[in-house]
Amino acid sequence: MPPITLPDDVRALLAKPNPATITALKPDGQPVSVATWYLLDGDRIHVNMDEGRARLDWMRNDPRVALTVLDQAGWYTHVSLQGRVVEIADDPDLAGIDRLARHYTGREYRRRDRGRVDAWIEVDAIHGWGDLGRAAGRSAAG
């Protein structure tokens, strides 16, 4: 399925450093959700993980993921994005995690002694709620 172009109202929400969870699939198909930082990068979503995270292996095995972003001003407005990890790259100089940390905290990432990995998600479907209810059901197919 081709990625969709993110609507302006969804882009506006995703541009903010909101709380979010990402869900990946274990090899047995069980979904696992964890809190994450994210950053809108064009029409893709950028995330970053410690090199030792199990979900990194899961994403390499099955790239399907979901990201739920809650509006920091009120969680009733939120958007759930379904998509695929389309690129994974080592972050040897920590530029990726620093970019995310600056977005969320205003400074570089504090922990500098562990390897990091960047991943980019292309969005296939959107479901919005609250002020984003108009986004409900948007997908590449419709």
Provide structural commentary.
The relative contact order is 0.25. Helices cover 18% and strands 40% of the residues. It has helices at 8-14, 54-61, 95-105; strands at residues 20-25, 31-35, 39-41, 44-50, 64-70, 78-90, 116-129, 138-139. Strands 1, 2, 3, 4, 5, 6, 7 and 8 form an eight-stranded antiparallel sheet that branches. By secondary structure, it is an alpha+beta fold. The longest helix has 11 residues, at 95-105. The protein has three helices and eight strands; from the N terminus they run αββββαββαββ.
What structural keywords apply?
single chain; 142 residues; alpha+beta; 18% helix
Report the order of strands and helices.
Answer: HEEEEHEEHEE
Give the amount of beta strand, in percent: 35-45%
How much helical structure, as a percent, in the residues? 10-25%
Residue windows where pLDDT falls under 50 for at least 5 positions: none
Structural class, from helix and strand content? Answer: alpha+beta
Distance between the termini: 11 Å
Number of helices: 3
Rg for CA atoms: 15 Å
The outline comes out as globular
Task: Report the count of strand segments.
Answer: 8
Q: Roughly what is the average pLDDT, rounded to an integer?
A: 91
Largest sheet: 8 strands, antiparallel
